[in-house]
Amino acid sequence: MHGEKNSKIMLTFNHRPIYLDHQATTPLDPRVLAAMAPYWTEQFGNAASGHAYGWAAAAAIELARHQIATAIGAQPAEIIFTSGATEANNLILKGIAESQWPHGRRHIVTAATEHSSILAPCKYLEQLGFEVTYLGVDDQGLIRLADLAAALRSDTILVSIMAAHNEIGVLQPLPEIAQICQARHIPFHSDAAQALGKIDLNVQRDQIDALSLTAHKIYGPKGIGALYLRRGLRCVPQQLGGGQEQNHRSGTLATPLIVGWGQAAQLASQDRRPYIDLLTGLRDRLWQQLQSIPGVILNGSFTQRLPDNLHLSFPQTDSASLLREIWPLVALSSGSACSSGQPSHVMAALGRNPAWASLRFSLGRSTTTDEIDRIATATIAAVKSLQS
User: Quick check: pTM over 0.90?
Assistant: First the structure.
């Protein structure tokens, strides 16, 4: 029975629907796979071992650390490898909180629309006696800088605001946020899992103190990410053991994944400009066609938006029915892949009716004009059919 089910899944997948869920994950770039290949087999050493095999692994890891640091304007020593952005978010929030606990400073500021890997640790810290201010957003999905400034207190230990939203794709004003925080000597962290390779990120220029990153959003391997931590910022480790990663995160380093991560970061920086132009054009083409749907609503700012994201709501239509109509043609989602089917807290923050269907179209390097036109035609037909 189990084998029969798997064969049916594979048979369905063999139809190869158009993939428009690149914010959930991206396919591995062949150049990244080629860079990783030797470290699964002949270059299999543990980077902590004091011999030739270990030294080779350590050298490969340091090259990747340099590649990632260069991509965001950081120093290599400021890059801490993690299993992904979720772990990086937990490390910075819990680590900063634990470092400030003895001093009685227990206030954090974030946004109500943050990723669950920010909101869940914040809820956990509230149970321990910390206080969290959740900033609301305007009708464009952006925080109000005046609200941020008003929320800061003498006991605020961290501000955490996402760079590029994983659901509605809006871009928060990082330099302006950082300037407000710096004036009060409060560290500023940003979850940039969706931002790398899509916007110009530079932690030194933009005065960002900590940044969470992941590889699988930029055509790298799953299961590897990083936390940029500005030198001198104290963050108590949450994973204890052998003291790897400058005592910030213990555990044997996954050399093949790290090598792929470094290669993906370098390629994302090199290829960013041409792909931004391509994706922006395709996204705008899709939006132009879908505006023919009665009552369609664009969620989030159109100008302050990722080039690969279009997030729409369709009144008088529910998400489950709409997805069933278009799934044979296109693979996409109604929102974050991390939401476990729960109603979107982001749509609630924007004041959207939870009964309305919402779709996140997230484009990728391989998306074509023909695919955009076919998806637009199918979506228009499906929504109008359901609305009638």
Answer: yes
